[in-house]
Amino acid sequence: MKETASQVLRVQVDRLDYDGDDVFVRSDPTARVPVPELGRGYTYDDGQTIGEVVHTTADARLPRQSNPDENGQGIMGITYTFGAQACELKIDKETGEIIIDHFASCFDVGQVINPIQIRGQVVGGVMMGIGASLYEELKFDEDGKALNPMFRKYRFPTLKNAPEKHTVEFVETPGEIGPFGARGIGEHPLVAVAPAILNAIYDAIGVEFYEIPVTPEKIQEAIENKK
């Protein structure tokens, strides 16, 4: 803590003392830093953190990470998970129903620690994305009242809507920060699901969609308008 505080207070470590609540300059006790602000390194107002983590934490406040500046630029993350997703589907032009035959996901996760759990994470994220892309939509009337606030009116995918085939692959290029070289996989399986599905729809019927969900009614209308 003293090493980090020395950077904040801009004095040598041997000039600092500690009273249980703060680290302070011995010759000027008014110059001090509270211990809670040093536990995970010291974070400046712009989000940049210096120093080392003193205690174990699940937060990711790491050195050189900062909030975006006025132009939206900054070092927002220390490590990134890369991946790709693709979709094969067929469309019933009479009903507008979209049937996903095959969905594929591949991510460089650094190191697979639990094979069953990580596959479940990816498959679950893809199903969540399918729901957002094709089914789930909150509808409101002119007064802002929800028209489908219950599950019998709010459509979401079930097991029968899952892809007939789901390919899940991983690349392992160990990272420098995560446990055993692992990278995050939390939200990544969801990110490219909608773009993959919408690209496949365009490939099938030649119509671009810019909003989700793409419902059977929208497919029918798009096909009719194209005619």
Could you explain how this protein is built, in words?
This protein is elongated. Helix 2 crosses helix 4. The strands form three sheets. It has a three-stranded antiparallel β-sheet, covered by helices on one side. It has a three-stranded mixed β-sheet with strand order 6-7-8. The model has no long low-confidence stretch (mean pLDDT 91). 25% of the residues lie in helices and 22% in strands. A hairpin with a 2-residue loop joins strand 2 and strand 3. It has helices at residues 2-9, 115-135, 188-191, 193-205, 216-226; strands at residues 16-18, 22-25, 28-34, 40-43, 49-53, 82-91, 98-108, 165-171.
Termini gap: 70 Å
Mean pLDDT, rounded to whole units?
91
Count of distinct structural domains: 2
The chain-level structural class is alpha+beta
Strand content: 15-25%
What would you give as the CATH superfamily of the largest domain?
Aldehyde oxidase/xanthine dehydrogenase, molybdopterin binding domain
**Cα-atom Rg, whole angstroms?**
25 Å
CATH topology grouping of the largest domain: Aldehyde Oxidoreductase, domain 4
Write out the strand line-up for the largest beta sheet, numbering strands in chain order.
Answer: 1-2-3
Compute the number of strand runs.
Answer: 8
The residue ranges in which pLDDT falls below 50 over 5 or more consecutive positions are none
What are the secondary-structure elements, in order, as H or E? HEEEEEEEHEHHH
Instruction: Characterize the largest beta sheet: strand count, sense, and whether it forms a barrel.
Output: 3 strands, antiparallel
Tally the helices.
5
> Helix amount, in percent?
25-40%
